[in-house]
């Protein structure tokens, strides 16, 4: 008796098995490509997270939150079209030794909380206390070395020592930052308080910390250096 075959027999299944396998591979590949594309889009659109590690100048001592350096810098960068988040990791009274101690947990994080770049603003309190420039250099050197190992781009901001400590100390202190910038090939902004220091109109009553107008000047002047830092973040992502 003739029994018609509708393609569901054992022979038909074996013949079509390679085709089914090929289709399954194509589907899996398409799904993988779609997921990879989505992850790539997400990584390109995620905000660049800049962590500002510093002392009271970064923390914003005596200022309203909206007038602090990190908030003002965040707003200025976004106004120029940069998708960024600037994190305030300033601790009032901190020295380079303190920053060195807390570095690991300050930059810890993953995913959306990862650290893409660092602005390193430390040393003012070392200078005010007349600490050994060699120790200040060693602390900052260690911080930059550890950030370098993690391939985190850095903007190093310099600081000047008070003039009452003498010319020799002032020279040694200034050279700390120059030497470190050259050694670690980081973006360098020579003096964080440039255009603000010693100007009564731009400082609080203590003559040490910038007021709201002073912070505006700092942000405006440092902005090109921060944008240079962002280029290094983008370059790292392309490599």
UniProtKB/TrEMBL annotation:
It comes from Varunaivibrio sulfuroxidans. Residues 52-215 form the SGNH hydrolase-type esterase domain. Transmembrane segments: none annotated. One of its GO terms (molecular function) is phosphatidylcholine lysophospholipase activity. It comes from the Bacteria. This is Acyl-CoA thioesterase-1.
């Amino acid at each position: 008796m003739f029994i018609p075959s509708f393609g569901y027999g054992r022979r038909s299944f074996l013949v079509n098995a390679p085709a089914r396998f090929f289709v399954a591979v194509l589907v899996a590949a398409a799904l993988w490509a779609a997921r990879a594309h989505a992850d790539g889009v997400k990584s390109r659109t995620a905000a660049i997270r800049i962590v500002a590690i510093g002392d009271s100048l970064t923390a914003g001592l005596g200022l309203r939150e909206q007038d602090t350096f990190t908030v003002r810098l965040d707003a200025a960068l976004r106004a120029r079209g940069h998708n960024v988040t600037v994190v305030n990791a300033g601790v009032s009274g901190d020295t380079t030794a303190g920053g060195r101690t807390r570095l690991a947990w300050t930059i810890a994080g993953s995913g959306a909380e990862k650290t893409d770049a660092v602005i390193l603003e430390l040393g003012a309190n070392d200078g005010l206390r007349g600490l050994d420039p060699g120790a200040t250099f060693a602390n900052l050197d260690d911080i930059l070395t550890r950030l370098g190992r993690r391939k985190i781009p850095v903007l190093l901001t310099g600081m000047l020592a008070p003039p009452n400590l003498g010319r020799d100390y002032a020279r040694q202190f200034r050279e700390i930052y120059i030497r470190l910038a050259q050694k670690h090939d980081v973006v360098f902004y020579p003096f964080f308080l440039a255009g603000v220091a010693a100007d009564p109109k731009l400082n609080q009553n203590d003559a040490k910390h910038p007021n709201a107008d002073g912070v505006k000047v700092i942000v405006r002047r440092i902005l090109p250096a921060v944008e240079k830092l962002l280029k290094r973040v983008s370059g790292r992502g392309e490599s």
